Each structure stands twice: as C-alpha cells, then as structure tokens.
Amino acid sequence: MANNQKQAGFYTLKQFKIRPVLQDTTSKSVLDQNLPDSTELNKVILNWGISESINSQYVHGYAIIHEGNNILGDLPIIGEEEVDIMYIDFYGNRRRESYYVYAVEEVQPENSINDRMVKYIIRFCSKQKLHSDTTELRRSYADKTISSMVRSIYEDYFLSGDSTDKEIEIEETSGDQTLVIPNLRPDEAINFLARRAFSSNSKSSLFRFFETREKYFFCTHEYLIEKYKNGVSNDAISISNNLKFIYSTIDDNTGPGQILAQQSIASLVYGKKVNTISDMKDGAYRRRVTELDYMNRTRITRDYDYSADHGQYKAVDKLKLTHTKAYINTFMQADNAPETVLIADYPQIGQGQGTDYQLKPYQYYYENYTTKPILDYHMEANSISFTIKGRGNMYPGKLINLELYNFAESLSGQRTLDKERAGVYLVLSVESSFINDEFLQKLVVSKGGLSGTAEKPASTTTVDTTFNMISGLIK
Amino acid sequence: MSGLFNNLVWFVGVVEDSADLTNAGRVRVRAFGVHPPKGEALPTNHLPWATVLDGTYGVAQVVPKVGDWVFGFFVDGREAQHPMVMGRIPGMNLSWPMGSGNAGEDGYIPPESLHEFGAPPLHRYVSGEDSEFGQAILQRAFQRSGIDTAGDTTFDEPPIMTPERNLDNRVIKSKNGDNFLVLCDPVENEAGDFILMSHSSGSVFQIDPNGTIFVKSFGDTYNSTEGLEFNNVQGSQHTNISEDWTLKVETGSGKVWINGDLDVECENFNVTARGSANIRSAIKTNISGGSVGIFASTDDINLVAYNSIKNKSGNILNGGGFYVQSDYGDVHLDAYKMNLYSSTYTKITAAGIPAISTQLLPYPDITHKGIEINSPAVVSISTIGALALSGSTTSIKGTVEANLTGAIVDVKADGLLNLEAGGIASLDGTLVNIGMGTGAAAGITASTTATTTIRGTQVAFPSAAKSVTEVAAAVDPGEIPASRASIFGGNFVERQNAPMTSFMGHDDDANGPQ
After folding, report:
1. Where are the alpha helices (DSSP H) in B96-179?
2. B interface toward A at CB cutoff 8 Å?
3. Where exactly does CATH 2.40.50.260 map onto chain B?
4. Strand B180-184 vs strand B170-173: parallel, antiparallel, or unpaired?
5. Residue B215's beta-bridge partner residues?
6. pTM of the predicted model, to two decimals?
7. Alpha helix locations (H) across A136-272?
8. What residues are paired with A265 via a beta bridge?
9. CA dihedral for B63, B65, B71, B73, sign (positive or negative)
10. Residues B129, B184: contact at Cβ < 8 Å?
11. How far apart, in whole angstroms, are the C-alpha atoms of residue B500 and residue B509?
12. Which of B2, B45, B75 lies closest to A356 in CB terms?
C-alpha cells in the first residue's frame, strides 16, 4: 500500500549480497552447491541498475561499488559470483532478484584525493543467461513448428533447475520446419529461429525472444498488444492498473501529489519525426524479395507495399503513414526498393517435397523478409523515451497509456491532447536505475506510428479529469 | 541487395550423403565447427543439402563421394542453411569412422568411407604409392608375347604403362580410382608421353610414347557402327584368333583385292555359292586333293581348254584307271585322230538294245544296234593271235575284192555251204577233194545278199558325220559377271548420314537443327 510520506520513486535496498557460485571449484555443477556465506554490499552500493528490452535476450545490470575493505581482493570478486538483491519500491512491493556477476570493470580510486577507497563496477546478468551460455548449440530439429523448437531449446538449455528459473511464454508459429542450429548459443539459436518464424495469426511475424525480470517471451509485438490490451482499454482501467501516465510539472509534496508524480513522465524525447532518406534506403514502405531457385534456374521476385497493407496489422491504435501515398508512389517505387536475395530450396508450386528432406518445406522467405524489417523499422522510428518513477512491475512488452499534449497549447497553459501521439504504447525497453534512495525507470515505447487523425486515441478522458481520476484513487 | 553473399562463412566439412534424388548433384556436408559429430543431435538426413559448384563448366560433372573432405561456404553466412561446395581437399584417412571399434574413432568420418582408410590422397599413377593395387599387375601378367601370325613370324603385345611417381601426370579417375585416364607429357630422359585409359578389369586403351595405340580387352570387344567403317593399314596387318572366325555380310557383296598371293590354309575348305562359283586365274588353276570330285547336281560338267584336255590316272602301284559311265546317255568322241591303246586287252561291247533317244543326232537311232566300224579307207583288224568273227549271220564283203587267206582256210557250214561267183568260180589246190551230199548244189543261189540286210538302214561311210552335238561350253573368264551390286548403289565411299546425332536436342523442330 502506498505510503503518503514517501517521495515518488522512493525505494529501499534491503539486500545486495554477493557470494561465490562454487563452494568447491572442482565441483562439476554450479547448481548443486551449498553456497557459502555471502557478503552484504548494500552499504557500499549507491548506484545500480537493471536493463531489459524486447530487443535483448537477457536481463543485465550493473552496480557501482565504493569500498575500502578490499572486498574486491579478499572475497574475491572474480566474475564467479552471484548477487542476491532485494528491494522495496514506492508501493511497498518487495522484489527479490538473483543475478550472476560476469564482469568487474573500471576499477579505480574513489577520487584523486582518496586512494584508500576503491570504486568499480560489477556487471551482472540473469542466472539463466549464464546457464544457457555454457552450451553451444549444434543440432537439428526436424518436422516441428518453430515454436516447439523454441520450447525444446528453452527446456533443454535455459532451465537450470534453480528455483529462480523463469517460465517462458511462447506464441505458436505456423508450419513445420527442419533446421540445423549452426553452432550458436541457445539465445542466439532462438533468435535464429525468430527470424524464420511465421505466424498466421500475427501478420508481422516479428518474433522476438527476450527476457524480463518476470519471464521469458517468444512472441510478436502483435501478440503482446493482444495480451495486454485489456489492461489499458480505457483511462479508468489504465489508471487502476497504474498504467496511465501524464506529463505533469506540478510540484506537490503531498501524498496524492507524490502518487501523481509516480504517474508522471519526465525527460520526454520524441526522437525523430521523420527521415525521408532513411525511409527510402531502409525500405520503410516497399521491399523486394528475390528468391533464386537455382535447381530450376528460376528467379522469383515479389514486391511488398506496406503503404497498402499497413492497416492489417494488429496495433495499439489505428495508425497512419508518415508519408503520403502519392509521395511514396513517386519517390519510393518498387523497382528502387531494398532487395533481399535468397535461395529458394523448397518445392515450387505443384512439386513434391520428396522423401528424406530432399527439399525443404516452404520457408516463408517473402513474408519474413518484408513484414519483419518494415514493422521493426516503424516500431523503432516511432519510438519515444521518457522517465518515470520506478516500480517493480514495469516490464518490456507491457502496454501503457500516455496522455501527451500538443506543445504549443502546453506552453500557453491550454493543454490539449496530441491526438497523434497520445494513447496506448508498447513498452520496448525498461532501464531501471537505483540512485541513492530513488528508483527511476527510463522507458522506450512505441506504437509503430502516429495515430490516424480521423481516429481518436485510446484515451477518452479529458485532460482535466485525468488528474482528478489519479488523485481520486488515493482518496 | 542483402540476404546472400555478403558475409560468407567458410567451412571445411565431410561429405556424408551424395544420394541427391533431385539429380542436382548436391551433397550433405557435416561442417567442422558448425555441425556436431554424427549422432542423434544431427543425423545425416537433417544436414542441409550443399550445392556443388562446377568449376569445369559442365565438362566434368563430379559429385564428391561420401567421406571426401570439402571446402566451401555458407551463402547465408552464420545462418548456415545454404552451403555450397567449392572443391575437394585431398588427404589420407588415418582416423577410423565412429562405430568401427578401433581406437581414434572420429564422429566426422562416415562409416561408408571405411575403405578409404590409409588410401593415399594421390592416384597411384601420380604418387607411385599403392602401385601393387589395381589392374596393373594383371595387365602385366597377361602381357602376351610370341603371338603367331599366319606367316612364319610372331609379334608381342606392347607393355602397358605401370604406376610410378610422376607428379606431372594428370589422372582423371572414377570415384574409387579403379577406372582412370592417365595423361602424361614427355619428360626429358624419362618415360612419358603416353595416354592410358584403364578399366578395373584390366581392359585398356593406351597410346605409348612411340605413338603406338594398344587396345586390349580382358572381356569381350565389340566394334559396331551404324555408318561405314574404314580401316587403313599402310604396313601389314596380322590377326591371331585362338578360336573361331566368322564373317557375314548381311546385305551387300564382298570383295577381297590382294596385290600379292593369297594363301588360305585350313582343315577343310568349303565354299558354297548360292549362285555360281567362279574361279579365274590368268595363268593356271591348280586343284589338287587326295581325291578330287566334281559334281554337277543339276546340269552338265563342261571342260573346255584352249589347248588339249589331258587326263591321266593311276600308276603302276594302284592301277588307277579312267572310268566313264553314262548308262543312260551317249558317249561321243570326235577327234582329228583317234587312237585307243591298251596294254592288255580292249573290249568293245554293245548290248545291241535298240536305242531310243530324243537327242539330236546326225542319224536317227532307229534300227541302230550293235557295233559299227566305219572307214572310207581301210578297216584293218590285225592280230598276232587268232581273229575270230562270229555272228548269227557273218558277212565279209569287199565291194571290189574280198580275200580270205590263211595257211589253212577252212570254210565250214553246219548246214548249207554255198559258193557262188558272178564270174568264173575257181577251186584249185594240190589236191581238190569234193565230198558227197551236195547233190542239190546246182540251182541254189548263194546267200551273199545277207550282208546288206545286216547293216539295216545305216548309211554307209560317205554319209557318216560327227556325232558330238552338245559341245562343251565353259564360261569365258571375261564373261564372269561382277559381284552383285550393293543395295546402297555401290557408292561405298560416300559416307552415310547417321540416323541420329547428338545435336538433335529436344527443342529441335522437325526440320532438324538450323
């Protein structure tokens, strides 16, 4: 329950223990050890953080340690340790997370006049990341959907048997495949599969494999939108889920004011509005895929036009194109679109696949090499970043509801919604920073474009009522 | 462009499967560092098919064999789903494949290549190693020498080149190297400059440093052409056949032209001509044999000589004779002079059966019988011994004079004895005895007219003629017809078009290639 006396973003680091992974270095299994006593570092850590993103296969973090007890040399810290972190956020939610220390960097005196203290950075990652990285995957999967291959890899290489193992959420893919994993780490292998995965339910097929502090995901952003859309279906629900954020400059140290501050965004950066040359070169709207079937001396070329197709993707809102269709048709023609050349070693229409894997099943090259990069491009190009006061349950992949205002009116004090930008966003990444007793999170979010002007964003409330609704929650 | 060929990942791998059912010549390669050793994690049939690049541009389409180490790249880089093979890496297998039961097993070596263990990387005609293997020993063991010709000479087979170390040799070989083509350039002071095409059976085609072409088959040899065949031998040709030899010309005719002599020696010499058999010699035709038979199965035998026809038979030891039998036909001898001589005796016998003949004769057969001797001058029958004339009716008549002279002349008739003279009848002797019982002599006419009755209708000599009406008529050599004309119009030297040619592609239209 919220504490009215707390400042927004307040948190308490209850524990930051470090201990060697192995009690006996000759032991074979990391996981079967009776861990030795740990060393508490929470008094010597003032700044630490955790990063997670839908573009990253693992959660990783850092901690800056200031100490004069030679923990670094005596423990020692040699990249064979785990840290056990426990903290309490503004809402009183207690979180406990464990990571592996994999690097110690920037070891240096505390400052130029105090060489009795040392400052260094330890970097850590999720335990399952390190566990899976101990294996290099070289094997085949035959006659399986890619989603089932992902599940096999996860179960075989990511599950350590430790109680901290996370579950994985997998979106089903379409079509059986036979693939050889060519000497890749398990997370690289799943990314390899993600590039080939096709979903008949999610048109973009933009599969991503990522880890949050909560769980693993192998899914498309369309799947995430479908999964979390009910949590932000309107302002009231968004507010009740603490997923409604506003741009507020009100300085109110009261309890409700701090609650409001918890839902306020800062350091808002919209990023780029448009980059036409980049849109041309990177194929923001048109792409060409050429498949070379050299056994049949056949070249199959297909063009994809996102400008004609963009409304068919699941999005947080009805989106509009940055450029006009007339401009796209004039300056971004299909013949000049980026071309991807691939080898078609699957049967032509009407031809059998043969026995014993003589030919591959249909590979979805055209679909994957058009929709994935284009959707990814627009997601990144239209991303915005800002900072919020931290909370333990904010993860990449979630949807949030932003209330953003037009600039001009904001300056004049007459705030009106920016109908293009306000609304529901998909959280792409979360960088949690813990500095002294403040917990901040930098979010990168995107909805893949600007909302269509003819359509209202998901928010249906007025600007003036938002404050009241958020404040009303705490009354 | 993106997607391919930008970040190639090179690899070295082992071929595990070459049975590409698409007939594209692809292979499955287990790439070191990319794929694990053979096992459940990645069975062979899950390996991606690798396209084998053809650096010969279609001249020699070779599919790497199982067990070959190959070098190549993944077109799609680290994705490693589209391998291509650029070439084969030579080497010797000195590790055992997994499952062989030997120490040092390697999960990257397919069991199918077990026979490659220890095999030198280079062919024995390049490295000289393993020269004891292969067909060279067989070829050397069966090198024939002293082969008889039909003349008095012999010849030897040329030796077949044996394996030796020569790194300049070019060898084009089959998968296991059992069948190969060796190309060797001349090297100063060394044997070389040969072409050898050798089969695992030992059969070989070789052109040696002298340019001698040697073809030897350890199996059978067939030469077959749908067109013509021409052989030109500027020297001699010798053929030695251990067993049978046959020659059959199916539809045309044959001709043998030999400037010198043609000697044919065999056990039995049988010539069958379905038409005529003609033997022509400019000087002499000699036919000899233990026995010589000439048989005309349907017609006459004609012997014609520009000069005489001479027959000689027998000798003092075998007493061979000259026999002519023509039981149902005539024997006619017409000559300028004719002598019959026998050392012992001569018999002329005519059975006297009336002749019935349809043959064209100078006089009809009717009434002819017996033996007639005609002469316009003299018929002399002379004997040192007795001369007996005997017949049911015996007549001696001299149209001018008939003399019957002897030391003793007995004229005796068992019946009547008639003596008659148109003129004076004289009977004179030192003593003339006339006996009794002839009282009826007077008034009885002597039967001398009987002589004309005996001759029948036979014309007298002036009317006699030559009796040979079927004159021997042999074929004049100049009239011997030429060989039957070829069904191809006799145009042997014009090359015939092949019925099918390789340039007839499947896209050619009915008018043939343009």
Report:
1. 124-127, 136-141
2. 1-5, 20-22, 24, 31, 33-36, 41-43, 45-49, 51, 74-76, 78-82
3. 9-121
4. antiparallel
5. B205
6. 0.74
7. 146-153, 186-196, 221-228, 235-240, 255-262
8. A388
9. positive
10. no
11. 14
12. B45
The H or E element spanning position A328 is helix A325-331
Nearest-Cα residue of chain B relative to residue A352 = B22
Residues in B touching A182 (Cβ below 8 Å): 31, 34-35, 74, 78-81
Contacts of B75 in chain A (CB under 8 A): 343
In this structure, what token pair is assigned to residue B237?
């040709």
Domain at B9-121: CATH architecture = Beta Barrel (2.40)
Q: Which two tokens stand for residue B274?
A: 């379905």
Are the beta carbons of B51 and A294 separated by less than 8 Å?
yes
Q: What amino acid occupies position A335?
A: D
Class assignment of domain B125-216? alpha beta
DSSP-based three-state secondary structure for A156: helix
What string of DSSP letters covers A59-90?
-EEEEEEEESS-HHHHTT-SS-EEEEEEEE-T
Structure tokens at B40: 């459940």
3-state helix, strand, coil in chain A (%, to 5): 25, 35, 40
Contact A399, A378 (CB under 8 A): no
Can you give the pLDDT of all 475 residues of chain A as single tens digits?
Answer: 444 567 889 999 999 999 988 855 444 444 444 445 688 998 899 899 999 999 999 999 999 999 888 888 888 899 999 999 999 999 999 999 999 999 999 999 888 777 788 999 999 999 999 999 999 999 999 999 999 999 999 999 999 888 889 999 999 999 999 999 998 999 999 999 999 999 999 999 999 999 999 999 999 999 999 999 999 998 889 998 999 998 877 777 777 888 888 899 999 999 888 999 999 999 999 999 999 988 888 899 999 999 998 889 999 999 988 899 999 999 999 999 999 998 888 877 667 777 778 888 888 999 999 999 999 999 999 999 999 999 999 999 999 999 988 876 555 667 788 888 999 999 999 999 999 999 999 999 999 998 885 444 444 445 556 666 665 544 3
Q: At what angle do helices A186-196 and A365-381 cross, to 10 degrees?
A: 110
Chain mean position to CA B400: 73
Query: What are the contacts of B492-498 at 24+ separation with CB within 8 A?
Result: B492/B228, B495/B227, B495/B228, B496/B227, B496/B228, B498/B226, B498/B227
Residue of A177, A183, A346 to mutate, testing the B interface (most B Cβ within 10 Å of its Cβ):
A183
Q: Angle of helix A146-153 relative to helix A186-196, nearest 10 degrees? A: 170
Distance in Å, alpha carbon of A171 to nearest chain B alpha carbon: 22
Taking one residue from A and the other from B, the number of pairs with CB-CB distance under 8 angstroms is 75
Work out the end-to-end distance of chain B between its first and last CA atoms, rounded to an integer number of angstroms. Answer: 40
Q: Is A411 on the interface with B (CB under 8 A)?
A: no
Question: β-strands B194-198, B204-207: how paired?
Answer: antiparallel
The alpha-helical segments, DSSP class H, found in B90-200 are: 124-127, 136-141
Domain with CATH 3.10.450.190 in chain B: 125-216
SS3 call for A240: helix
